[in-house]
Amino acid sequence: EFMLLRREYGNDPRKVLKEGREVTACGVNFIRELRRNCLKEVTDYAKCLDDCRGGEMLIPYCRRLQYPLDICVEEKMGIKRPMVGYFSKLHVHESQKEQPPRPEYPRNYSEEFSKVMDELPENYPIKLDNYKRYRPYYNTFTEND
Fold first, then answer.
1. What's this model's pTM, rounded to 2 decimal places?
2. 114-133 pLDDT, tens per residue?
């Protein structure tokens, strides 16, 4: 909910303070429960990450300590680690809160352009070759213009 609302309100944190507090409280409660239930496994895993290869924190070198941590969290807290690739897939969230009103665009640029072009005198010189289409995928040195 927090991420959706924050994005819909245009990243204005003042409008989603309540939801932000809930997210923070959830994270703090999770850390407390983790510390209470699986302190030894978390400490071993963290030490492995800190000590491995000069502090590079390479997870593959600590897999043997990650498995006991996963088992402890699943058994004592009821939280199962998602499968690899879970967070790279699209997930649709059905929100119970109503969407904030969408902002109306303050300007209609095509109407403004038409109005300005209509106000120009008939003999006004318009050089269309000055307005080249931007094509970053083409090399400019190969074009003949």
1. 0.59
2. 888 888 888 887 776 665 66
Q: How many domains does the chain have?
A: 2
Token code pair at residue 116: 């300005």
Cα–Cα distance measured from residue 44 to residue 65, given in angstroms and rounded to the nearest whole number: 7
Residue 104 lies in a domain: no
Q: d(Cα 71, Cα 86) in Å, to the nearest integer?
A: 19
One-letter amino acid of 23: V
Q: What is the DSSP string of 66-129?
A: HHHHHHHHHHHH--PPPPTTGGGS------SSPPPPPPPPS--HHHHHHHHHHHS-TT----GG
Q: Which domain holds residue 69?
A: 2-88
- Strands (E) across the chain are located at none
Q: In this structure, is residue 11 part of a structural domain?
A: yes
